[in-house]
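Known limitations

Structure tokens in this collection are predictions and should be treated as such. Users comparing against experimental data should check residue numbering before alignment. To illustrate the layout, the record for Acetoin dehydrogenase operon transcriptional activator AcoR is reproduced below. The input appears on top and the generated tokens appear beneath it.
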Amino acid sequence: MGAPKTISSRASARAGSSAVRALHELFVAGHVDASYLDSAPIRPVVAESWRRSLATGVDPDRDGALCSAMTLSLARMRETHPLAPALPLIRRLLVDDAVDSGVLVAVTAADGTVLWVEGDRKAVRKAEAMDFVPGADWSERNAGTNAPGTALALDRELQIRSSEHFSRIVQPWSCSAVPVHDPTTGVLLGCIDLTGGADAATPQTLALVRATAVAVENHLALLRVTEPDGRADGAAGRAQLRVLGARRARWQFTDQNGSLRTATLTPRHADILVLLHRHPEGLTADHLALLLDDKELDVVTVRAEMSRLRRVIDPAVVLSRPYRLLQPVDSDLGSVFSHLHAGDVEAALNSYAGSLLPQSMSPAIGRLRAELSASVRGAVMATGDVSLLRRWLELPEGRDDRDGWRLLHDRAQVGSVGRAQARGHLLGLDLDLG
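Generated tokens:
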């Protein structure tokens, strides 16, 4: 009696994978040339991708994808990317069912930059080892043959199974990726990828990812019709978070009736929204409690605060398990970081209304506050621009910045009023310290 069909097919798949792996070793070692692949037991689409990967100098032994130049501006890129408004839909159709299934879902930009990676936590952690993380460049030219990168290179849906990957570190994985296009212009926007074990490259999986891509394109088309200004990039009507300076933190949003509303946030709610904004991947109640107060806060209190917060900002904005923002949010904090990453120090200083939530006692907010302040100060000092330096020193946190005032003194013209004022301020600081 022959072996059952399922066992036979699995054995055949293992044999096929072994043959592809052996061929891969010969090819990357230079023991066979590119023309040999034409007669080898490998799919033509994979053979062509291997040739391109070798031609562009991809190292099959690299530890992961090269870091994209866009990594520094990832937050801004995600906020403004055309696929951002469809992220809640992708989560509902793919991510929510992937949480405990050993697979992860990724959304990339058209250039191969990974924008979001979510799904099974263990799978996400394993993927980090090969740098399959937000901000990494998984285009074929940088990472070699892989489902999202090659699907983007060819602008077609694609599955890559284990040993078909060009880089060895990726070969334990299998993937299905489908490009997503602008519903009006047809321009390639990016792709949706599902990565996991062998089950991630079955016909059923590809059909699921394909259906999600179609749903996303339809969703974007609908937004074009319903957005007041005809845009689908999510910028119109986006919630605004203001957390810099001495004023109470504010949340501005458009309610269900289309009316613009502004809510003044409690200190705890402001802390939570900042942390969720800076952690788009989401935070568990335990992690959020630790970030808010590493000693006194418990999970029950966090859940109660989240319940109250939802009533203030709109329940549809925050999702649980883990807690995360379902919609892109513009914030003055994010604006400063984006300008700094872009090298526009003047714009960063224009957006910097003061320190982040100065009354907050949260350890995580304190670290972020110090990071932001030091980043702005360092960028201003590095420019050597006296006008920018003077503006920094006029801020509350700049008044006691002795090095800044010394630099202003040294840069000011000898005999000028500005130099005299700087000298007087330095004398006052020295007396205070004395």
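For this record: Confidence is low (pLDDT under 50) at residues 1-15, 228-236. Residues 5-28 form the longest helix (24 residues). Please report discrepancies through the issue tracker.
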